[in-house]
Amino acid sequence: MSPPPVIAPSSALTQPLRHAARTLCAALVFAAAPTFASAASGCLATASYIPPPPRALAMAALARQEHTAFGSQTMDAEGRLTESGYSEAEDTRHPIDALPAWQRVLRYWRAVDPSSERLPSLVRFGAPHAADRTRLTDALNQASAARLQGLGVGPGQGLDASDQRALEVALQRVAVIDTPWSAAFISWVAREAGLGADEFVFSEAHVDYAGAAWQAGIDEAAGRATPQALRACDLMRTPPRPGDLVCHARGARGAALDGFGKIGEWLAGRPTGGAPLPMHCDVVVGVDGAGFDAVGGNVLQSVTLRRLAFAPGTRLLDPSYLPEGCTAGRSACIDRHMSRQPWSLLLQWR
Question: pLDDT exceeding 90 applies to what percent of the chain?
Fold first, then answer.
């Protein structure tokens, strides 16, 4: 069931409220020691009293649009796949007058680096290290029939234009599969919603914009101005709104960063572009009394909507989604399957 539409109030009403919430957030954190509890109070004030701004709603709408274009792949509140969509490298299945899946992913990458076509870059072929797509494409260009004939090679040698294009497309589709693109998806949604480079870190790594949001919270606490559009909040203590991002760390390192304080300590000491940290983030696209829907890219090789439930009687994520939330198999535990992750961060629109 689709969530009810969110209606944005007039700017005349929301601007004073938004300013008051930002002031309250800074005051709550700055007036006392900068503890996670006081920071959570500021995040809670925004979540409770400030509607999501228009660009947040635009991000939610764009994420829903891409979910539909990818065939509406969906996971239920227990983390089970209930509807299968189109995979990232598909070429033939797509809505009429819409780009096929692999071309949509290429478009996401353009949001990360609009001035270059180097991304996605990885082409894996069984060797210890992946090849670089742009270098392989350059090698193809060297083997074109037109170039070879210009060097004195006889007719019929080298790649004609159609063969060359077919191999270039094949390399692009392989790179789409081999290069993780979930952060590129978030970057595209943010850029299309109107965010600028001073407001959001467009990156192939979630950790870069998550770190910027963490720093924005530190700046607010210190009374410093920040242009960043998002701040980092504790997901387990802050209700999400449409357009916010819900995030978790992944992999062996991510398993150790399974809480807001732990991942925040790591983010605070990392510069943008610093040490890698595998992460994943989804865009919240709808909220109701029982939970929220979130859309993410490169989830089961598609753009996938997942349902996440609130704990009974609250507007907070149910702890059963966390790895240690409950013991699977017990009668009181709901197994969340593929949605059981170390969820920790809410990147909240300021």
Answer: 66
